[in-house]
Write a structure and sequence with these properties.
Pathway: Amino-acid degradation; L-kynurenine degradation; L-alanine and anthranilate from L-kynurenine: step 1/1; Cofactor biosynthesis; NAD(+) biosynthesis; quinolinate from L-kynurenine: step 2/3. Helix content is 38%, strand content 13%. The chain is an alpha/beta fold. It binds pyridoxal-5'-phosphate (PLP) and (2S)-2-amino-4-(2-aminophenyl)-4-oxobutanoic acid.
């Protein structure tokens, strides 16, 4: 796409944008004068859809009206509320509805998945992750290794960028697999890296793991609602994600979990269980032994938080209306525009860390600051730009295609230019 560095161009793109009307369906934070801030932080916390309060209010009303009978009589009966979300969520992660369950939160789900899918033996016990994985993933994996009496120094293999580089190369991943295939039990990769914004080729990773009989799981925290990862077809064993970033379900909202069809019917797979994972036809018989639901629901422990599910339902309804392919098409243009305008600044104190190729990134661009200077980020914040700083040296900017506009990107660049010359 040919971009032009003018406000008129940005406004024209917005007029031509078939998703433009979704912007009005979100609450934008405002500054002290009541003007909307330039919100480019959907990679940390997605904005609140205006309709979410009605969805939550409905649950409160149903609770007031029905008490315990809301489990069956609420507008979305609480007993099956999470099941209704499996289908729209499956669209977003590229799976069958039976392979998805909305439950817990990301790190909890990661632990539960490792209970089932990290089965170290004396010889095959190592876990491979990307070196700059999000800290929670590193902690979870480190603690799982220790739980199995494996020293993380022995058990962890890091997929690192080469010296002097910032991004991981797939050929290096493959070399690591060649080198360690007989010792590797699990590969666990963040589908889109939180820091660099690099989106990995999940199909390529999964294929190489399958060739060597290595279990493969993905953390989609920065992928879900950003890039459709096609989990079923690529044969990922499991995946986990949160819904409060691109999926706009609200702070700390419920997470998601994918278990591939090849595992969901297993009655022998190890797992930590709870009553909500029990076959729902006999769940309330109470005195029978555990009989797992033959879908990803079989990994549930507890009954889900209904108010949180309401936020997820509200947002998924918007995703369904917008259509994921349309969102991705807009996202590529929008982030491309951001990249073009940053490059036009030709400022040597900043550089783009994220891959330049649209197929290797989602909507986030990570701007790396020379000398790890945080002051630019602080100036931008003072100017009403909402972005975030990630140690040691990155400002993350993420135009979310569901509610951000080309004008947002253009206005951000005006503020950036101002702050760089301030
Ligand atoms: C890649 C990644 N993994 C894990 C987490 C932690 O998620 P949670 O706090 O929902 O467990 C986050 C964000 O907080 C993340 O970005
Ligand atoms: N849930 C949060 C609560 C407080 C502060 C940040 C978060 C984040 O989600 C950070 C995000 N995972 C990140 O990519 O940095």
């Amino acid at each position: 796409m040919q971009y032009i560095n003018t406000k008129a161009f940005a406004e024209q793109q917005d007029r031509n944008d078939p998703l433009n009307s979704f912007r009005d369906q979100f609450h934008f934070p405002v500054d002290q004068k009541g003007n909307p801030k330039i919100y480019l932080c959907g990679n940390s916390l997605g904005l609140q859809p205006k309709q979410t309060s009605a969805y939550v209010q409905q649950e409160l009303e149903d609770w007031a009206k029905f008490g315990v009978e809301g489990h069956t009589d609420a507008q979305s009966p609480w007993l099956t509320s999470h099941e209704d979300l499996a289908k729209p969520m499956a669209e977003i992660i590229g799976s069958q509805p039976e392979e998805v369950v909305i439950m817990n939160t990301l790190t909890v789900n990661l632990h539960l998945m490792m209970v089932s899918f990290y089965k170290p033996t004396n010889t095959k016990f190592k876990i491979l992750i990307e070196s700059d994985a999000f800290p929670s993933d590193k902690y979870a994996i480190g603690s799982q290794l220790k739980f199995h009496n494996i020293d993380p120094k022995e058990g962890l293999i890091l997929w690192k960028p080469r010296k002097g580089e910032h991004l991981c190369r797939h050929e290096d991943f493959e070399s690591l697999i060649d080198l360690h295939k007989d010792e590797l039990s699990l590969v666990m990769i963040g589908s889109t890296n939180y820091y660099s914004g690099q989106a990995f080729d999940l199909e390529r990773i999964a294929k190489r793991c399958q060739e060597e009989n290595i279990t493969v799981g993905f953390d989609l925290a920065h992928g879900a609602g950003n890039i459709q990862p096609n989990l079923h077809d690529i044969g990922a064993d499991f995946a986990v994600w949160c819904t409060y970033k691109y999926l706009n379900s609200g702070p700390g909202s419920i997470g998601g979990c994918f278990v591939h069809e090849k595992h969901i019917k297993s009655t022998t797979i190890d797992r930590f269980v709870g009553w909500w994972g029990h076959n729902k036809d006999s769940r309330f018989n109470m005195r029978v032994g555990f009989d797992p639901t033959p879908t990803a629901d079989g990994w549930q422990l507890s009954n889900p938080p209904i108010l949180s599910l309401a936020g997820t339902r509200s947002s998924l309804d918007l995703f369904e209306k917008a259509g994921f392919d349309n969102l991705r098409e807009k996202s590529i243009k929008l982030t491309g525009f951001l990249e073009f305008l940053i490059d036009e600044l030709k400022d040597s104190s900043i550089s783009i860390l994220t891959p330049r190729n649209a197929s290797e990134r989602g909507c986030q661009l990570s701007i790396q600051m020379k000398n790890a200077d945080r002051s630019l980020f602080e100036k931008l914040t003072a100017k009403g730009v909402v972005a975030d700083w990630r140690e040691p040296d990155v400002i993350r900017i993420a135009p979310a295609p569901l509610y951000n506009s080309f004008t947002d990107v253009y206005e951000f660049i005006q503020q950036l230019k101002h702050c760089l010359h301030d």
